[in-house]
Design brief:
Helix 4 packs antiparallel against helix 5. With 219 residues, the protein is α+β, with helices and mostly antiparallel strands. The protein is built from ten helices and four strands. Strands 2-1-3-4 form a four-stranded mixed beta sheet, covered by helices on one side.
């Protein structure tokens, strides 16, 4: 019997990437909700280096870091491919996945910081959005004609970014500035492979509003 556990957080885009991959492959798993203010012994012993989620535990063996977990799932379980079969397309998918994954921290901080640091963050995020706007012109998916690895990595810009904008009042994305990106985003959140697995927007919005307000009170 396959024993698969996922340690994560309901509001975490990184956790949701892994859940998408498991569901795409048809893998049954147990989701264990963590508390970052009181990390479980299982989390600490499964990821002693970074002590963070998500963590996939397969037959007692932990795998850490969301994008590494996606590749592990793709290579381990039968079902639709997550990474493209073609070597060039696979390289492209990894490139865009890393590009997107590397920008998540900067995007979150832009909504939580104030003053000069926030303005610096806005500039960095707008530069990233400009790159994506050019890349996504006329595209439904990042690589090829089906949902895959890079699209999973895009879940923050495709969904969470809009929630952070609404919660904070800091608007970075408009159809006037980034028309191609906005067309892609609207198709992305309504794609059946995406929409089915997104956390409820109202719940996520309430959580992010509370987080941004807490951050503002500390500033």
């Amino acid at each position: 019997m396959v024993d698969v556990k996922l340690l994560g957080l309901w509001y975490s885009p990184a956790s949701h990437k892994v859940e998408w991959a498991l569901k795409l492959k048809g893998v049954k798993y147990e989701f264990i909700e963590e508390n970052l203010q009181n990390k479980s012994p299982l989390l600490l012993e499964s990821n002693p280096v970074h002590k963070k989620i998500p963590i996939l535990i397969h037959n007692g063996k932990p795998i850490c870091e969301s994008m590494i977990i996606l590749e592990y799932i793709d290579e381990t379980f039968e079902g639709p491919s997550i990474l493209p079969k073609d070597p060039y397309d696979r390289a492209l998918a990894r490139f865009w996945a890393k590009f997107l994954d590397d920008k998540v921290g900067a995007m979150v901080n832009t909504f939580l910081l104030k003053g000069e640091e926030q303005e610096k963050g806005k500039k960095e995020v707008c530069e990233m959005l400009n790159v994506l706007d050019n890349e996504l012109k006329g595209k439904k998916f990042f690589v090829g004609d089906k949902f895959g690895y890079a699209d999973m990595a895009a879940n923050f810009v495709g969904y969470w970014l809009g929630v952070f904008q609404e919660a904070s009042g800091v608007v970075l994305v408009t159809s006037e500035k980034f028309s191609n990106f906005c067309v892609w985003r609207d198709e992305y959140v309504n794609c059946s492979q995406v929409k089915e697995y997104l956390p409820p927007r109202n719940d996520l919005l309430a959580f992010v509003e509370a987080r941004t307000q807490a951050s503002a009170s500390k500033a």
